[in-house]
C-alpha cells in the first residue's frame, strides 16, 4: 500500500494515462481514480470540453417502418 501514497501527487490527467497500464501501477491508478470519484475530488486536468452548440448527426428514425430484406415497404 506504500505506492498509493505516491499517487496522491499525480494529476487526474496523469492518472488517466497510467490507468491503461496492465500492471500494478495501472491497478493503483484505477483505484485512485475510483477513490477520487467517490469523494468528489477533481483537479480539472482531465475534463474534456464539449461544445454545447455542436451539431450531431442523428440518424433518421426507423420507428413505424416495415422492412423486408432491407427494403422499406
Across the major sheet, the strand order is 1-2
The major sheet is characterized as: 2 strands, antiparallel
Calculate the terminal CA-CA distance, rounded to whole Å: 64 Å
Order of helices and strands: HHHEE
Compact description:
With 73 residues, the protein is mainly alpha-helical. It has a domain at 1-47. It has helices spanning 2-7, 12-18, 24-39, and strands at 67-68, 71-72.
Description:
- It is built from 3 helices and 2 strands.
- The chain has 73 residues and is mostly helical.
- The chain has a domain at 1-47.
- It has a two-stranded antiparallel ribbon.
- A hairpin with a 2-residue loop joins strand 1 and strand 2.
- Helix 2 packs antiparallel against helix 3.
- The model has no long low-confidence stretch (mean pLDDT 85).
Write the layout of secondary structure elements.
Elements (H helix, E strand, L loop, with lengths): L1 H6 L4 H7 L5 H16 L27 E2 L2 E2 L1
Antiparallel strand pairs: 1-2
Helix pairs in contact: 2-3
Considering the chains and any ligands shown, give keywords for the structure.
2 strands, mainly alpha, 3 helices, 73 residues, two-stranded antiparallel sheet, 5% strand, single chain
Amino acid at each position: 500500500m506504500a505506492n498509493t501514497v505516491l499517487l496522491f501527487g499525480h494529476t487526474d490527467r496523469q492518472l488517466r494515462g497510467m490507468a491503461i497500464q496492465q500492471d500494478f501501477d495501472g491497478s493503483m491508478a484505477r483505484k485512485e481514480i475510483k477513490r477520487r470519484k467517490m469523494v468528489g475530488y477533481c483537479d480539472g486536468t482531465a475534463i474534456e470540453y464539449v461544445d454545447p452548440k455542436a451539431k450531431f448527426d442523428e440518424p433518421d428514425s426507423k420507428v413505424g417502418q416495415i422492412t423486408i430484406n432491407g427494403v422499406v415497404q
